[in-house]
Amino acid sequence: SSGLQAVAQAADAIRLGNADLMLAGGTESMSMVPMMGNKIAMAPSVFDNDHVAIAYGMGITAEKVAEEWKVSREDQDAFALASHQKAMAAIQNGDFKDEISPYEIVSHLPDLADGQRIITRNKIADTDEGPRPDSSAEGLAKLRPVFRNGQFGGTVTAGNSSQMSDGAGAVLLASEQAIKDYGLTPLARFVSFSVAGVRPEVMGIGPIAAIPKALKQAGLTQDQLDWIELNEAFAAQSLAVIRDCGLDPSKVNPLGGAIALGHPLGATGAIRTATLLH
């Protein structure tokens, strides 16, 4: 996401000597985006051409990934359930406390009884709202495919896809000199970053090409990785990447991912970076 790209650009600026301290991140308020006003009736012919179908949403690309990488509906639902279970366990253990900055929400609402008095309500936001403690395999199995159904045999549902969420995240990057000058204690060292292009109709499998490039630049091998944050845009895409790259599932998103925690598009990369740091 652009949040992760911002982190990479900040690191590049520091490595080039153009900056010493950079605050990089992203924000997204999907609840405020008017993207659901017009409902489009899909004609079956839309799905005949992948390059046309993908214009109607990333969900179609997830269906293509599930089809090409042979990711079953059952495996997608199981992955989604695990994401919720891991996220709930992390919240209960307080694993996100150090990376979340609580903030107060003040709401000013009219008193519906007389329409005159204004009621003020205060709420502290300090916990992710996405993870569902009541998620179950049975419940996920009952959900209908969102992007393909009926004769098209869809497998991607709202339950095994990432959630539309609001969120923000940021990280502070510093040069070695800045660390000394300001007495900072670094949480990690930025080593490498890579982007790779893939066919647009299967855009979610970009990490399959990007991960080897990033590892090569860093001089690392995959077995040296202990913790992997992989964005869960869709369970189908995540499983395709894990299987194709041969990633150890136990090392991928130990605290849950976007299916449970949400995917505020412009912020996700920075949020996942913050989770990795802590």
From TrEMBL:
GO cellular component: cytoplasm
Organism: Stenotrophomonas maltophilia
Transferase keyword on record: yes
Domain spans labelled Thiolase N-terminal: 1-177
Entry protein name: Acetyl-CoA acetyltransferase
Chain ranges of the Thiolase C-terminal domain: 184-278
Keyword Coiled coil set for record: no
A Pfam match: Thiolase_N
Source domain of life: Bacteria
GO molecular function, one term: acetyl-CoA C-acyltransferase activity
